Amino acid sequence: MKAIKPSLIAAGVLTALSVLAAPAFAQVSLRVDANQPGAVINKDVYGQFAEHLGTGIYEGMWVGPESKIPNVRGWRKDVVGALKDLHVPLVRWPGGCFADEYHWRDGIGPRSKRPVKVNTNWGGVPENNAVGTHEFFDLVEQLGADAYVNGNLGTGTPQEMAEWVEYMTSEGKSSLAELRAKNGHPAPFKVAYFAVGNEAWGCGGNMKPEYYASLYNHYTTFLKAPPNVRPKMIASGGNDNDTAWTEVLSRDAARGLDAISFHYYTLPTGNWDKKGAAIGFPETEWFSTMVRTLRMDEHIRKNVAILDKNDPQKKIGFYVDEWGTWYDVEPGTNPGFLFQRNTLRDAVVAALNFNIFHAHADRVRMTNIAQMVNVLQAMIITEKDKMLLTPTYYAYQMYVPFQDATSLPITLANNTVYGENGQGVPGISASAARGKDGKVYVALVNTNPREATDVTLDVAGQAIGAVRGQVLTAAAMDAHNTFEQPQAIKPAPFSAQAAGGKLTVKVPAKAVMVFSVEG
Ligand code: AHR
């Protein structure tokens, strides 16, 4: 695996290159135009997903008020505290596939009286409904986040869904508002987003887009929240290469539709039966993970082109409400719990996705990584009373300045290529924005696990004296934190000074960098 540096690279995956002799090359240069503000990067792009799956909620976050593990009304203090540092803007709940078998009335009232069900999607384990509507809203309140509730279309009815929305949002005198008050919350809950079903093409009912579009129209007719607190309504869309859902929904379900959701996971091999290992993987799987991650851009472009045709006024958002890495489960764990290790590779994947989402900020106004704790590409891993922060956690932390920042156009010239066997990906991925504090922030990712790259920086509209920020990298591609070595990988401070009016940043191999530009 070598790097080449041809000059004609814009973005995306390059194919049919006659790799791999490295010619003499020009310096990679990044120009940020601070005079041309683009779309605001909605903070909800940094949303999270918490499903009733494995130890994602139970154990990982919820231990119950009686637990010896320090908690606030059942929610772990350590985990909530760490998540608060990420400024988590939004949490999606209760699924995922779980959502389409979830009946909200099972999760209200005294916990001791709630029914125990079987979580048929995820490991066949008992679900005691200890976390229900009130507990979820307590969590988001503790986090200072907004709520994204996913309704049950698959096994529910329009009446059940309408009554859940009424239970959560009703301000007036209604028996459901009174029941909510009796259960401890007289004031309505704020539901920022509400989705009608999940993955209707699969676990949500194996439907065709036309059939789902009719159901979406049918159900949303009866979802009557007070106008000032009406959640943004989301239709469950397609995944991967399938654009039919966006086509049909933006055409047939556009009334009362705020957004179409989309799911895309990065599997190193692309094979669901043998996805690839989370740790101890070969460089070929580092490379294929980069290739497959960058396909997010292509998927968004194709769907946005359809939206631009059917919704030129850009009323409909395109929400990637499930994304992230999906590996073979950790050996010896319940396969239904989707537990996997999280390494430097995951942080690079997260940062590449962030840069792609920023580039589509006008349509991609919300996303949710899957998932928040102990499941798939998690921020946090827990074991009994211990917890550790993953490289993905640190990527989120480093990108906090991009929340609600204004995107700025960039030009990346003379980019490197990282590749093998006639295929390559751009060596450097970049993004820039003006933060809410007025500073220009730049993010750089080096996809090459072997070679550092020098990037010269130029900001039109601003003199550069220095840059200051953080860098996340490590010696091994699969560097990760463990309970024995919880700080094996974490960001380090970074700064560089301009010289002769120019500033060059050395981006280490396999690294994520975020810094502010100082005058
Ligand atoms: O995130 C895990 C699962 O992946 C979700 O429940 C489902 O929507 C998707 O297939």
Automatic annotation (TrEMBL):
Give start-end of the signal peptide: 1-21
Keyword Metal-binding in annotation: no
What EC number(s) would the UniProt record show? 3.2.1.55
Looking up Gene3D superfamilies in the UniProt record yields: Glycosidases (3.20.20.80), Golgi alpha-mannosidase II (2.60.40.1180)
Q: Which reaction does it catalyse?
A: Hydrolysis of terminal non-reducing alpha-L-arabinofuranoside residues in alpha-L-arabinosides
Where in the numbering of this chain does the Alpha-L-arabinofuranosidase C-terminal domain appear? Answer: 321-511
Coiled coil residues, start to end:
none
Q: Which domain of life is it from?
A: Bacteria
Question: Keyword Transmembrane helix on this protein?
Answer: no
Q: Which UniProt keywords apply?
A: Carbohydrate metabolism, Glycosidase, Hydrolase, Signal
A Pfam family this chain is assigned to: Alpha-L-AF_C
Which top EC class is given? Answer: hydrolase
Report the PANTHER family cross-referenced here.
Answer: ALPHA-L-ARABINOFURANOSIDASE C-RELATED, INTRACELLULAR EXO-ALPHA-L-ARABINOFURANOSIDASE 2
Quaternary structure annotation from Swiss-Prot or TrEMBL: Homohexamer; trimer of dimers.
Family affiliation: Belongs to the glycosyl hydrolase 51 family.
Q: What is this protein called?
A: non-reducing end alpha-L-arabinofuranosidase
Native organism: Massilia norwichensis
